[in-house]
Write a structure and sequence with these properties.
heterodimer, A: 519 residues, mainly alpha, 18 helices, 0% strand, globular, disordered C terminus, B: 82 residues
Chain lengths: 519, 82
């Protein structure tokens, strides 16, 4: 065989190569230019997930209002320690964990269920499968949260942070709920009509098995002493990184390009962000126990893994910034984008803050201070809650097929929430550092650290009131949107197009036109 | 101390090994090929062809090129909310 013929044998012709490439590409992705998603398709997918999505959002908002009130009272107790101390269920030791659990499992998790159930049919290009299973899952979950809260206020707590709900009654219901919702998400994924998994699919689909594993592991009644503390922080840190973070990053990666009308800056960076998180995050939790009686290798490994998280965090930060850069003016037109951009910035900030906190020298100052609360609110509120607010602003008009009734209420909600949370994080951050420095100063009595933090705690309470006002506005607006009839929405002269990037009314007309043509 | 180590190592492996499995599955399954097309796969007609008032002419041109169209849908009205 000559070298020429050998070459001809190994190398297909250009036509064959193109054909193979085209086949592979068709098989690998839905080429956008050849197979665009139409309005009728997205409407059909949204309709299939409508009931569980609305159920999830409504329940989430009810929990948000309750959790806000619990947080406010907990905060006021720092300023007025004798406030409501006669009843045991109103004491700080019960209200504070109740606030945390209601916000994480009641508000954020319910809203995340809704977001996941809305996104997965669109990303899989099929209807939502096992819808009733998903609805059942949300019901189970909420029974669990309700039971856990009730028992917690009555004095039954598992005594571990983020895991206070009763492990024998509330937690099994919550695990069952998450598994059922996850089953619907995964069934939809398995029935997908696209071969390729967009990066948001990775984030959303992975969240459910991760949560089931870490929540079950964290609640097993097997651990004692130091081991219990280690498992506690294995769970609590992973609940943030492998549950709350993942679905919200998936949401941001999905909505940001859609609102801007252009794809994400670098799809490769988005994949690096996900896989960096998936492979390294699970080891991070032990940095909460620096200085504790833990094996030194465990702390060292955790600090190393925490520093390694710089890679996925910076990858996500650069990617999301570069997607929006040059188009920040879009935030004036889309409140959803505004909140998603703020959430993305907060994700980068809180992650870098967390990495720094894992360093022993910084941890020595900030540990056991109010700085930790500022840090957690930067993550759980400015990142997670802003992302979910943004998602709700975008998703509800699509699902309900009508626009938000009032741009003023949107403005009021966002300005109150953002202002309140900026004051909150800055004030408590400063107060926490001053408190930490005072605690480290052996010449000062403990009382000095309390006095150093006191004015900042009062500022936090003021911020909490501002945030509460924002939540009341938001809750009112959502209820208004949900309860108003179609005619009111259709005829209203409010600037709906200011709220979502695509006019719902216009699109409804297009949809009917397209359906008419199809039939 | 021994119990601490075993529990945490096991939990980390249970959380991490499925990720590794799916990473290998994704590579073998072509999930990381054709990233440009993948990034655009979520966009609807209205996402790419709708008018965006904040865009500069060059940005509009870029989007029209991506959308493979010579005109945008100009019948959409926008108003700033802030």
């Amino acid at each position: 065989m000559t070298s020429e013929s050998q070459h001809a044998f190994q190398q297909p012709s250009a036509q064959e190569a193109n054909s193979v490439y085209e086949d592979a590409r068709r098989d690998s992705v839905q080429d956008h230019h050849q197979n665009r998603i139409s309005l009728a398709q997205t409407q059909a997918w949204d309709a299939s997930s409508r009931t569980p999505v609305l159920l999830g959002f409504v329940l989430a908002l009810l929990w948000l209002m309750l959790g806000t009130w619990l947080g406010d009272i907990s905060s006021f107790k720092f300023d007025w320690p004798d406030l409501w101390v006669t009843e045991a269920y109103l004491t700080f030791g019960r209200l504070r964990p109740a606030h945390l659990n209601v916000m994480v499992y009641g508000w954020a998790s319910n809203a995340m269920f809704a977001v996941a159930l809305w996104m997965m049919p669109r990303l899989s290009q099929t209807r939502l499968h096992w819808r009733r299973v998903a609805i059942g899952g949300i019901v189970f979950w909420n029974f669990g949260v309700f039971m856990g809260l009730l028992l917690l206020l009555l004095g039954t707590s598992d005594g571990m942070e983020w895991l206070e709900f009763d492990r024998y009654s509330a937690d099994p219901l919550m695990v069952a709920g998450a598994v059922l919702v996850g089953a619907s998400v995964w069934k939809t994924l398995l029935a997908r009509r696209v071969h390729h998994l967009y990066v948001s699919v990775w984030y959303v689909a992975a969240s459910f098995p991760w949560f089931a594993i870490i929540f079950t592991a964290g609640n097993l009644p097997l651990y004692q002493g130091v081991e219990s503390a280690a498992v506690n922080w294995f769970y609590a840190h992973n609940a943030l990184g492998l549950w709350l973070t993942t679905i919200n990053l998936g949401l941001i990666y999905y909505l940001m390009p859609k609102i801007l009308g252009r794809p994400v800056y670098s799809y490769w960076l988005s994949l690096i962000g996900f896989w960096g998180l998936a492979l390294f995050y699970a080891l991070n939790g032990m940095h909460h126990l620096i200085g504790g009686p833990m094996p030194s290798w465990m702390i060292a490994t955790s600090i190393t893994a925490s520093i390694l998280m710089v890679i996925p965090v910076v990858a996500v930060g650069i990617n999301q910034h570069m997607t929006v850069v040059g188009r920040f003016g879009a935030m004036r037109y889309s409140p959803a984008l505004t909140l998603l951009v703020l959430a993305a910035m907060a994700y980068t900030a809180v992650s870098l803050q967390g990495i720094m906190t894992a360093l022993v020298n910084i941890n020595r100052v900030t540990h056991f201070t109010h700085w930790t609360i500022a840090h957690s609110h930067l993550g759980l509120y400015m990142f997670v809650t802003f992302s979910l607010f943004g998602g709700i602003y975008y998703i509800l008009p699509k699902v309900l097929q009508r626009e938000w009734p009032s741009a003023r209420l949107i403005r009021a909600h966002i300005l109150l929430s953002v202002t309140g949370m900026v004051i909150y994080v800055v004030a408590l951050g400063i107060g926490g550092v001053l408190q930490g420095l005072s605690l480290l100063d052996a010449s000062q009595p403990f009382q000095a650290s309390v006095m150093a933090a006191k004015p900042w705690l009062l500022t936090r309470s003021v911020a909490a009131v501002i945030i509460t006002l924002g939540h009341i506005v938001f809750f009112t607006h959502v209820m208004w949107l949900m309860l108003m009839n179609d005619t009111a929405g259709k005829n209203s002269a409010s600037p709906f197009h200011a709220i979502t990037p695509v006019l719902v009314e216009l699109r409804r007309g297009e949809g009917r036109h397209q359906e008419g043509k199809t039939s | 101390m021994y119990t601490d180590t075993t529990t945490l190592v096991l939990l980390s492996l249970i959380t991490g090994i499925p990720s590794l499995y799916f990473l290998i599955w994704g590579i073998r399954n072509g999930q990381f090929d054709h990233s440009d097309e993948a990034a655009e796969s979520i966009l609807e007609d209205a996402d790419v062809m709708g008018y965006r008032p904040w865009e500069k002419p060059a940005q509009q041109q870029e989007r029209m090129r991506r959308a493979d169209t010579d005109k945008l849908q100009l019948n959409q009205r926008w108003e700033p909310w802030l």
